[in-house]
Automatic annotation (TrEMBL):
Any Pfam family matching the protein: TIM
GO-annotated cellular components: cytosol
InterPro entries: Aldolase_TIM (IPR013785), TIM_sf (IPR035990), TrioseP_Isoase_bac/euk (IPR022896), Triosephosphate_isomerase (IPR000652), Triosephosphate_isomerase_AS (IPR020861)
Keywords, in A-Z order: Cytoplasm, Gluconeogenesis, Glycolysis, Isomerase
Any GO BP annotation: glycerol catabolic process
Family: Belongs to the triosephosphate isomerase family.
Entry's EC annotation: 5.3.1.1
Protein name: Triosephosphate isomerase
GO MF annotations, alphabetized: triose-phosphate isomerase activity
UniProt keyword annotation of RNA-binding present: no
Length: 234
């Protein structure tokens, strides 16, 4: 299983070092693949078996792109994993599918592990299933779904940080459909918490979870890793 934490704009560099240090104990004998995406200012050369990834980067080595980081900055810390297409970058920061695909192609050429996010807002969820799938499938436009280093994360936008979670039947249904688009590992994200993670991980075609706010506490995230270990999924 892949158990991933997106720390978003949280935890300072020193707090992230402490966070990773705390996680070390629970991952030491774990067979799960653990990914952590710190805030950009908290990226560093962590000495850990945990995979450290970037939440975002511009598709260049370096250049005149104020407020962005490029490949050179990731290479400094040996980072080869990146999150692309997250709903907050699509809906809040305005990244278009065309730009997302450009970013995907660039980091694919660099051999990065790409955790690629797809999902739908509430209005789309409440429409027909066909319209919902069409909306999600449009987010695959320009994306190499057969890329060997691809991980896909399905995150219903309306469930992120709201405490609302699709039923397990809903998760199973959408994951079954998305598996038809790509054989890549498929994570579920959206209000994943300690008290529901085990049930979510039991769902067919769920290959792991991408966790947001509930992962900000190392002990909570460790509990999620342990839940996957207890299920014997790896």
């Amino acid at each position: 299983m892949i158990i991933a934490a997106n720390l978003k704009t949280n935890l300072t560099r020193s707090a992230t070092h402490e966070y990773i240090k705390q996680l070390q104990t629970c991952v030491q004998n774990s067979s799960q693949e653990v990914l952590v995406f710190p805030a950009t200012s908290s990226l560093d050369g962590y000495d850990t078996k945990i995979t450290i990834g970037a939440q975002n980067a511009y598709p260049v080595e370096h250049g005149a792109f104020t407020g962005e980081i490029g490949l050179d900055h990731l290479n400094e810390f040996g980072i080869k994993t990146i999150l692309i297409g997250h709903s907050e970058r699509r809906h809040i920061l305005g990244e278009s599918q065309e730009f997302i695909a450009k970013k995907f192609d660039y980091f694919k050429e660099q051999g990065f592990k790409i955790v690629y996010c797809v999902g739908e807002p509430l209005a789309v969820r409440e429409s027909s299933k066909e319209e919902m799938l069409t909306y999600i499938y449009n987010q695959y436009e320009g994306i190499d779904t057969e890329y060997e280093n691809l991980v896909i994360a399905y995150e219903p936008v309306w469930a992120i940080g709201t405490g609302k979670v699709p039923t397990l039947e809903d998760i199973q249904d959408i994951h079954k459909e998305l598996k038809k688009k790509s054989s890549a590992p498929l994570l579920y994200g959206g209000s994943v918490k300690v008290n529901n993670v085990k049930d979510i991980l039991k769902v067919e075609n769920v290959d792991g979870v991408l966790v947001g706010s509930a992962a900000l506490y190392a002990d909570h995230f460790c509990s999620m890793i342990q839940a996957a270990e207890e299920l014997g999924k790896n």
